[in-house]
From TrEMBL:
Domain called HTH marR-type: residue spans: 4-136
Protein name: MarR family winged helix-turn-helix transcriptional regulator
Pfam families from the UniProt entry: MarR_2 (PF12802)
Superkingdom as given in the UniProt entry: Bacteria
PANTHER family per the UniProt record, alphabetical: HTH-TYPE TRANSCRIPTIONAL REPRESSOR YETL, TRANSCRIPTIONAL REGULATOR, MARR FAMILY
Coiled coil spans: none
PROSITE patterns named among the record's database cross-references: HTH_MARR_2
């Protein structure tokens, strides 16, 4: 073998371990990965329609209905009819949903910080900067 490994082969074990750690945190809080994705999307932006949310998170709009139902039943989101088109439901994160999402994220990132602390500070900063840049340009691939 010559040169460096493929990026996917290099990053796959790390991504797999990070996802497993994230799932453990979320399951401990009674939140599915899709629920966390929905809460994150709603916490990061304005009220969305179910169709716009599905598009934003890369999910089929019919696939997230059950997740939305569970989040609403738990009081983590609200779904209200759009006054301009009663066939459309407007989504919003509730204060409880925002708190649940932010607490889960803090726990997830605390675990990530323990991993990142194994790197020298300069490498840690460079890794986070490069990962952010690559994440921003993935649409170009």
């Amino acid at each position: 073998m010559t040169g460096r490994p493929d990026l996917a082969a290099l990053l796959q074990p790390l991504v797999k371990a990070l996802i497993a750690a994230e799932v453990r945190v979320l399951e401990g809080r009674g939140i599915s990965m899709w629920a966390y994705v929905v809460l994150s999307a709603l916490d990061d932006g304005p009220v969305r329609t179910q169709a716009a949310l599905a598009e934003a998170i890369g999910a089929d709009k019919t696939r997230i209905i059950t997740t939305l139902d569970r989040l609403q039943e738990a009081g983590l989101i609200s779904r209200e009819p759009d006054p301009g088109d009663r066939r459309v439901r407007l989504l919003a994160i509730t204060a409880a949903g925002r708190r649940a999402r932010r607490e889960a994220q803090a726990e997830i990132q605390a675990g990530e910080d323990r991993l990142l602390a194994l790197l020298p500070p300069d490498d840690r900063e460079a890794f986070l900067r490069a990962a952010g840049t690559l994440a921003d340009i993935t649409a170009l691939i």
